[in-house]
Design brief:
heterodimer; A: mainly alpha; globular; B: 125 residues; four-stranded antiparallel beta sheet; three-stranded antiparallel beta sheet; 7 strands
Chain lengths: 170, 125
């Protein structure tokens, strides 16, 4: 199997795993009456790929996950909001990783904040209802908390998975 | 390397502290609202005072797409024709600035104004 095929398989499996995480987290009640609040478990896959394979492959996994999840389970609105959150969080994560040179935990922390911010701002613009920005403080805080915890998990996983991932086609 | 780790940990603590302060400050701006403003597709559907218990069917193209209820100074979405019912699970809202949004049906219920028991002066829109 060529290394390019291996790479495609690895990233596809990661995207599928991210989708499973999405489903699992939808079963866990994590709702405080604020739309958009979630655990963000799928970001484990994104962040691990980002630190073992590379940033662009991580973006690819994220986009693949978002497109497939939207096509299969949700609607066009949630698709656009997720996309906005993903792009903003990607820019922020790459900046934190490359420019500020911080570790996984910080990357995931700021990524979580940026994702929630991007989603909410996109929602406010599209629905033309800026009152929803009312939820920005609580979503930023919860994004930071979940991002931080995901970052801790990723920090434990990356050294253990790195060799396996690179051998599998990273 | 260890020094770098400590600096990063400090940064994380500062980030959380800042976000927490922002969050607590935004909470102190909560005042009880005076009316619920409902818009459908960005167009005003109606303004309803929270002081009066009301049943509000939201009708578009002769179909009831959502149903809102004002009860005891709070408003909540009782029923909706959307798939996920996220709008219903948003629960009861009564603070000025809070909102209930049904994205698929493009219905937004926003609390405005200053009602009874408000502690702060708020400029109503």
């Amino acid at each position: 199997m060529s290394s390019q095929t291996k790479r495609i398989v690895l990233l596809s499996v990661s995207a599928a795993l991210a989708m499973i995480f999405s489903y699992v987290e939808s079963l866990i009640p994590f709702y405080f009456g604020v739309p958009g609040m979630k655990l963000g478990l799928s970001n484990i896959c994104i962040v691990v790929i980002m630190f073992t394979v590379g940033e662009i492959p991580a973006l690819f996994v994220n986009l693949l996950r978002i497109v497939l999840t939207a096509l299969l389970f949700t609607n066009i609105f949630s698709f656009v909001f997720s996309l906005a959150g993903a792009f903003l969080s990607f820019l922020v994560m790459v900046a934190i990783k490359r420019v500020f040179r911080l570790s996984v935990v910080s990357v995931s922390l700021f990524g979580g904040i940026a994702h929630n911010a991007g989603q909410l701002i996109a929602a406010a613009i599209i629905v033309k209802e800026y009152a929803v920005l009312f939820y920005l403080p609580v979503l930023l805080l919860s994004g930071a908390a979940t991002g931080f915890l995901i970052g801790l998990l990723a920090r434990m996983l990356i050294p253990r998975l790195k060799t396996f991932i690179i051998n599998s086609g990273g | 390397m260890k020094g770098k780790g400590k600096k990063e940990a400090l940064l994380i603590v500062i980030v959380f502290a800042v976000l927490f302060i922002i969050f607590m400050m935004s909470r102190s701006l909560y005042t009880n609202g005076s009316c619920a403003v409902i818009t459908v597709d960005g167009v005003l559907y109606g303004k309803y005072p929270l002081s009066k218990d009301t049943d509000i069917p939201i009708i578009k193209d002769n179909n009831e797409i959502n149903h809102a209820v004002i009860e005891n100074g709070t408003v909540y979405m009782k029923d909706a024709a959307c798939k996920n019912h996220i709008c219903i699970s948003q629960g009861r809202k009564k603070a000025s600035g809070e909102s209930i949004v049904c994205l698929p049906n493009r219905v937004v219920i926003r609390i405005e104004g200053v009602g009874e028991g408000a502690d702060y002066d708020v400029i109503a829109n």
